[in-house]
Amino acid sequence: MKMQLERTNTGSTILCALCTILIISVIGANVLLNCTTRYNVSSKQVKGWKEALYAAEGGGDIAFSEVRKLVGVIDPSTVLLPDGWTKTSGSSYSNGPYTFGQKLADGTGSLSAQVTVDQLAATLGTPPSSWPYFRIRSKGTATLFGLPRVGMDDRMDNLTKADSLLRKIDFKYDHFKAKYGDGDGNSPTISPVSFPQVTRRTETIAVPQFLTFTAALEATGSFYGPGTGKGGLIDSYDSKNGPYTFVATNSSSPYYGDSRNGNVSVATSVFQGGGNIYGNVTTNGGTLNLKNGQIYGTIDNNVPFTVAPVANPWSPTASGWTSTSPATITPPAPPCPKQMLPNMSILR
Amino acid sequence: MKLSQINNTKGFTLGETMVAMGIASFMLLAIITASIALQKSFNAVDNYFATQIQQIRIIEYLNRDVKRSYAVTSTASPQKVTCTIPNYIIQCGDPDANATCTGTPPMPPSGCTPPGCNIGTRRNPTVKLSANGVSVDYALDAGGSPITTTVDYSISNQSIMRTENGHLTTIASSTDNLLPSWLDVDVSNTEYLSTSITFLPIFISGGATAERSGTTLFATAYLRNLRRGN
What we know:
The complex is a heterodimer. Chain A is of the alpha/beta class.
């Protein structure tokens, strides 16, 4: 028998090639993984978090437009119930969810807003003694698209997860209901969610506004500005700051901000300016005719308005309220609120 | 049995070996260089994305707090933003809290849950007529003055810190010289905060200034709770 020891010339080319491919693949996979995860956070999750706020603000705006109808209304249910609102308890009303946004497979929208309006009472002094104000709580929900995973830049130190602290995302369960229940800690429950989602909440306080006039000067007829060629001007000041001083051209003055509210509203098209106006000007279809001065504010020539009848001053006058003591003085009714003003905040 | 060894006379000449080694060395060098370049590129991209996400995070933290603030002040040196925020939630130590908290930080007693215990619940605002019109306050002290939450944003070494009522949170940390710039602008009937944040990428081709400028993220947030007059 003859045994033959065979020598081979083949090397490790395939091995080298595989190793090279492996190294490059590992690096490539790392790149792809990082890019995908960060893209997921910076686009999908940030988008969802922002859209949830837009949804909440949209719900708040819907409710506020309803609440604006309630100026001077004694019973809000006469306005809210016919408009589709539901009385939940006491003087609270709710509506929604309003759905909008990207259409989902189940036919609903990717965004939704649920709104609650609470009527509360405020003591606003005299006048008036008491008027209702309204609290609008809106919950905006955005469906979270993309990968249901947290980011890779979340952890700041052993304790802090900065992204999770800011953008709380419900991947499987509604974290808000689990921790806060109805928002006041009542009945916290573990509640699964259909899709990963982000919820944000806003609170708007709508308070009545009592001022009859909304500009420094309101003219129901023609307006001829003061001081043509005489250096007259229109500005504003806050009497709490003491005697009037002209600071409308002195931006370093602490009262500068108070001096630029010399707004002029004209209900007709006839506007003839005189001196400088340190405020905004509105007319009803007018063409500004300025003689000498300038307007240091915005100009809007499409603002019609009417002035509500002005009640007599509420305080007693010497001629009408002279009496001997003891006496009961009944002043005239206080003015009605003119409109609602919003005061919106982001709760979470 | 006879063992015989067959001598294989096939081989390489010195010239062939030298050429093969030259080509192999060149290929190895190319592979190593490509790997290093790829790794550096990966690091640069990784770093860019990570820092950009921190930029977004800083802006979002800041915008949320500014929007719900009564007042905002910013200082350039040291760089700091201070937000004064209404107290929406009843917290330990508030005058209207109906339970006594202990410890550092103060914690409510165990079993302090609504409706019996009001810590952690939302409070109704107080609406009143003031010299500047109708004001809305969430928490008032015994003297009727508003109690507020103070949130500070500051820079500590390479980190951006957020401090809420003394509680410190690191919201961004980077060795890439994240530079925020804040300016609160007080206008006649409102106030807003303009923010811009830049960082310096690892790969620079057009000069540090141009590269830093190219990473700028801008944001403007208006104060929604600031209301002057009626």
